[in-house]
Amino acid sequence: MSSISLFGFLIIQYYWAKNNFEEKKLNIQNVISICNQEIIEEIEDLIVEKSTKLVIPKSFSSINSINNNIHDEKTLVDSLVSQLEFIEDENFMVKRKTIIDIVNRHLSLNINFDLDQLLDEEELIEIIDQVMDQHNLDLEYFYSITNSSGLILFSNFEKKENELLINSTIFSDEFLIDDIYNERKIFSLYIMNLEKSIIRSFSSIFLISISLITIIIGTFFYSIKIINNQKKITQIKSDFINNMTHELKTPIATIGLACEALKDKDIELNKPMKDKFLSTITNENERLGKLVETVLQNTISDKGTPELKLEIFNIEEIIEKAMKSIQLSFDKEEGNIETDFMALNKIVEADKLHITNVIYNLLDNSLKYSENKPHVKISTRDVIGGLVIRIKDNGIGIAKDNQEKIFEKLFRVPTGNIHNVKGFGLGLSYVKSIMELHQGSIKVESKLGHGSTFLISLKASKIIES
User: Fold this and answer.
1) Which residues pair with 175 in a beta bridge?
2) Quick one: pLDDT band at residue 109, thresholds 50, 70, 90?
3) What is the pLDDT of residue 416?
4) How far apart are CA 146 and CA 155, in angstroms?
């Protein structure tokens, strides 16, 4: 339902944005059309004003006298000028009618205005800018004046810009369409990037809307992630409880049986048998202690940053100490540990106890996850600023999908209902926490059926062994 609601919200936002854009575009187009008409009126007024003073006396193509009388040109011009003075404040239509009436009374002619003598580019641009400013339009434009055949008479663009004008929005209207003119002209206004200009006018609203939508979508997916993580953690905790019950039940039951046997007076116990029972109790007690210690080690990540007891020591000695602690377990499985110490910068400053536990945990994992006789090779190599410890085993390996997850708390590689490998999934989480506290790192390289290699990076101490 949340997904459907979010999707519906996005559709509504898109529909709203599209409608507003189309409405804004239509409004601007209407305003530009009005501007185009006003520009044409200004141009026509300019032509009338100039033509009465300049063009008419020079533009007669033929003069046929009414009643075979030739009229003086000066008389006609004076009539036009004097009459237009009375209608100076009238609109273009009134002026046009007046001119036609005067001309018709005096002459029978076909007037052909030469626009080159009446207009120039600066005046046209000034008229266009003035009209667009009056309507608060800040748009990039080009213009042209053409005749009815499409021949360009005026323009403010070159031929090389013709391709650019193809993608423009064009507003065209005819003018000089009265009987006094022998050919109509077409004024065209080319508005560049009209849609982009409209989008820019919405930029602040779009930016805010997109930011809010991004936050909503991000929060939505973050919530889904949190829910999935909580579900995953719940499952992991359930598995942890099951594993812990399984792990603790066996040593407790064994200790209980051994104690009952020792307390049973009906059983005659000789010294070897007593020693055996006591040894069993001791071993299982140690096992319980290790299980509890493992759980307690993992609380480091919950407490924040623990206080480390930093010491300067030889890392090889710590590795050998961890090897000695686990050697009996390897011997029991007929396994062996090989070393290849080649690092020169082997003096580190770290917490000796925790680093020992890190090495022990990795060796213990190599032992647990070996189906054959376990073989581990520990090597050290110098790197810039420190050294790398490589612990390579011949175990079952780790699938690529699980290689990042193995360092998560309580995570164990899925094995179905089989519990042949003991543990809670806390060891590698503890290892990673310790390495991060030491500003080091741990990585794994593995392939199913081909063993695993753990790489531990540690900073070298500033004190180098002589």
Assistant:
1) 185
2) very low
3) 45
4) 9
β-bridge pairing 375-383 and 336-341: parallel
The torsion angles phi and psi of 380, rounded to 5 degrees, stand at: -125, 140
Render the burial of 429-465: b for 16+ CB within 10 Å, e for the rest: bbbbbbbebbebebebebeeeebbbbebbbbbbeeee
CA-to-CA dists, residue 21 to 11, 30, 211, 352, angstroms:
15, 14, 19, 68
> In which element (H, E) is residue 175 found?
strand 169-175
Burial of 377 (0-12, 13-18, 19+ CB in 10 A): middle
Neighbours of 390 (CB within 10 A): 15
Residues whose CB is less than 8 angstroms from the CB of residue 274 and which lie 6 or more positions away in sequence, other chains included: 262
Cross-strand partners of 388: 381, 457
Beta-bridge mates of residue 392:
377, 453
Instruction: State the pTM of this model.
Output: 0.42
Q: What angle do CA 22, 28, 30 make, to 5 degrees?
A: 105
pLDDT for residue 62 is more than 50: no
- Mean of all residue pLDDT scores within the chain: 77
Using 50, 70 and 90 to split pLDDT, how confident is the model at 160?
Answer: low
Q: What percentage of the chain reaches a pLDDT higher than 70? A: 70
Q: Token digits for 243?
A: 């594993």
pLDDT at 342: 92
Tokens standing for residue 306: 């623990």
| Residue 214 neighbours by CB under 8 Å, 6+ apart | none
Domains and their CATH numbers in the chain: 2-201 (no CATH), 203-297 (1.10.287.130), 300-459 (3.30.565.10)
Q: How far is CA 29 from CA 24, 87, 196, in A?
A: 9, 34, 14
Is the pLDDT higher at 118 or at 466? 118
Q: What are phi and psi of 289, to 5 degrees?
A: -60, -40
What is the spatial distance between Cα 186 and Cα 430, in angstroms, rounded to a whole number?
83
The C-alpha atoms of residue 313 and residue 67 are separated, in whole angstroms, by 130
